[in-house]
């Protein structure tokens, strides 16, 4: 287990470095076909929003899901991972805006609208979202057109009205009217679950996996998505408990009602164990090749930051 | 000419009605595959930003460019036109935000951030941008995957950092430091030209036209894009002149330096004639089938609103 965990950390880190390097290249000054100019300040704002040393968990999931089926699709998986990271980062840039969550800091750095201005943050987010689809469709992504079409469709559904963006709208609404448990589940599935599910399904699409394997990866993605959210909520709750004695005040207000705040820590810890076991069971058909993704499920369930 | 103009107006109106109806369907409550929920308020904000009775000039150009090659691709062209209109409308919703152009009214109606709130306007814009790529890739768009890939790539390049969004960044910067003539040309080519060029090129892609015809349509799109901008700037100038005696104060400040304000009305009117003639010459190989697009060039050059 410890050796496996070490291997996981090594893979996570080396994938993150590859993703960071690719994103830096994609966000360099070099003009692409059909581009008229790359305005310098907007490009800097995009880089600020993306090149922030994140864990790159979503690209990791694309790359390692694809790797279940061999090494042939690794370069394509990296590019699709970078596209997905553009979507994730755009959502952070927009969520941090004063009209949304109004955050001045992210990872200890000023957010884009603080480092630049609100207009730059809005346009940087818009441009990152657009760039994601550019990356998928670009000739440098060496995938069959049918795979590209499937990826564009799945990514847009995961990111848009019926996925992540809709989830952020529900999250803002939840500050005013607390949702019931079904509402919380829907909100979380949209806001964070949809991109994680896409990440794993995308790995299967990139690798040209069978429809059955694609469904399996999708369910694995859903399962770790649920675990990701519960771990997140558990962190909020225990951080509150440690620093304030109870989960009230601004943090609880920002954290809003969660399944964990409603059902308690013991329920959450048990549910995380169940979800990790489910993830392991789903990956059983891939036997030893699934070691990294099984470890990823443990990592997601047990992460402490 | 008058009969042709009447025919053009009829086509423009009937296309706009078809686009409006398709957009209304796409923005109905019906869940699509992979969507988790369609949050009602966000959906309403998206509808407010899109279903506004616009002329739908960009979809018209997609549809009529495709029609040069026959009727077979009409339904697909309509869908690609609707996708393009989602991009155009998202850009208006975001440009109207307080941090950008800060406009309260559009077409006599409150802008999305006034009718809803800023967060809703940001998310509605994000979701419309995302929906555009969804529409292109969706199975209901009955095009070969290679055409969908080409459309996603061309649309993302036209809309993103190196196109429309970059142009808006340059436009905001131009309020602080007036650009030179090259800067104005670049700004305008990005902010408004890129989507118009895409519209015409997309028609060729949708219709499966030859590479040569695709280049011709692209050049036609560039040409009418230039005419569009000069006509726009001319309207600003003459409207200012009519209401204020001269082009100064807030309107001129908002209008910023343009080729027309620098070179004058006579230059602009002459340049418009040249551009219409160029557009006609480009379309000559299509003979009588090009009547509507030739009339569109006249309409764009001579429009008074």
UniProtKB/TrEMBL annotation, chains A, B:
GO BP term, example: terpenoid biosynthetic process
GO molecular function, one term: metal ion binding
Names of required cofactors: Mg(2+)
A Pfam match: polyprenyl_synt
The keyword Transferase appears for this protein: yes
UniProt entry keywords in alphabetical sequence: Isoprene biosynthesis, Magnesium, Metal-binding, Transferase
GO cellular component, one term: cytoplasm
UniProt record similarity statement: Belongs to the FPP/GGPP synthase family.
Stated name of the protein: Probable farnesyl diphosphate synthase
Lineage: Bacteria, Pseudomonadati, Pseudomonadota, Alphaproteobacteria, Hyphomicrobiales
């Amino acid at each position: 287990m410890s050796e496996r965990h070490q291997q996981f950390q090594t893979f996570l880190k080396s994938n993150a470095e590859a993703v960071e390097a690719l994103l830096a290249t994609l966000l360099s000054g070099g003009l692409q076909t059909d581009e008229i100019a790359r305005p310098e300040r907007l490009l800097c704002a995009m880089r600020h929003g993306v090149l922030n040393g994140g864990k790159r968990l979503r690209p990791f999931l694309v790359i390692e899901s694809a790797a279940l089926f061999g090494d042939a699709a690794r370069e394509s998986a990296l590019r699709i991972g970078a596209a997905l990271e553009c979507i994730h980062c755009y959502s952070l840039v927009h969520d941090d805006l004063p009209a949304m969550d109004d955050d001045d800091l992210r990872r200890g750095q000023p957010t884009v609208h603080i480092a630049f201005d609100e207009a730059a943050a809005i346009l940087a987010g818009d441009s990152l979202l657009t760039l994601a689809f550019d990356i998928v469709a670009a000739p440098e992504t060496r995938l069959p057109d049918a795979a590209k079409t499937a990826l564009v469709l799945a990514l847009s559904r995961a990111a848009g009205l019926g996925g992540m963006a809709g989830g952020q709208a529900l999250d803002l609404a939840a500050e005013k009217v607390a949702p019931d448990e079904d509402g919380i589940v829907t909100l979380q599935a949209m806001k964070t679950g949809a991109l994680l599910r896409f990440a794993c399904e995308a790995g299967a699409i990139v690798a040209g996996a069978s429809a059955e394997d694609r469904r399996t990866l999708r369910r694995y993605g859903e399962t770790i998505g649920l675990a990701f959210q519960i771990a997140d909520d558990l962190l909020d709750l225990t951080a509150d408990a440690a620093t304030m004695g109870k989960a009230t005040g601004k943090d609880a207000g920002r954290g809003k009602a969660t399944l964990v705040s409603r059902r308690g820590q013991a329920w959450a810890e048990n549910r995380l164990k169940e979800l990790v076991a489910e993830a392991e069971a789903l990956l059983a058909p891939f036997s030893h090749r699934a070691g990294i993704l099984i470890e990823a499920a443990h990592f997601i369930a047990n992460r402490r930051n």
